[in-house]
Design brief:
Blueprint (H helix, E strand, L loop, with lengths): L2 H20 L18 H10 L2 H8 L2 E3 L17 H18 L2 H6 L1 E6 L2 E7 H25 L19
Length: 168
């Protein structure tokens, strides 16, 4: 099996799980956070909804500067009522990028993360893709805690939850 096929299969599994969590994000609670040092709910949900956009970015671009000059290319926070749509759109674009690339490219070319023009990490694209999917799972896990703390349904992700007995 090809590496690109493995990433496509994992993207499909994780996208479904992520979508189910996003469907339960409450409206009107964007500024809520469990602790003063925590990320607000709206920002976290937006991050979870749009993180999969990094897949095509990692494949199609050589780098990303998290603090670009003059604020160009800044992240646009999606509204709570558009989280699922934003996620679905980025999943489709990620699938398309994975279908257009090849294993050799992912294994032999590097991708860089920059902060204010300085390289903070540089790894082969296949490593960055894998870590991005792991990072998405991490933030989705945070989101399910926020859901619980806001008395929202916590969907089954890798197995049943107290609210959702299906084995996802």
């Amino acid at each position: 099996m090809k590496l690109t096929e493995l990433f496509l299969a994992e993207l499909d599994r994780e996208a479904t799980r992520t979508r189910r969590a996003l469907e339960h994000v409450p409206t009107g609670r964007d500024d809520w956070k469990p602790h003063a040092k925590s990320m607000p709910l709206g920002r976290l949900a937006g991050l979870v909804a749009s993180m999969v956009s990094w897949v095509n970015l990692i494949i199609e671009k050589d780098e990303l500067d998290l603090n670009p000059p003059g604020g160009s290319g800044q992240y646009q926070q999606p509204s709570t009522d558009s989280l699922v749509q934003v996620h679905d759109t980025f999943v489709a674009k990620a699938r398309e990028a994975l279908q257009k690339t090849n294993d050799n490219y992912l294994l032999t070319t590097n991708w860089r993360l920059l902060m204010s023009g300085k390289v903070v990490s540089e790894w082969p694209r296949h490593i960055v893709l894998r870590e991005t999917i792991n990072h998405l799972a991490h933030h989705r896990g945070q989101l399910t805690v926020y859901l619980r703390m806001n008395d929202q349904t916590v969907p089954a992700i890798y197995g049943p939850s107290a609210d959702d007995q299906q084995f996802a």
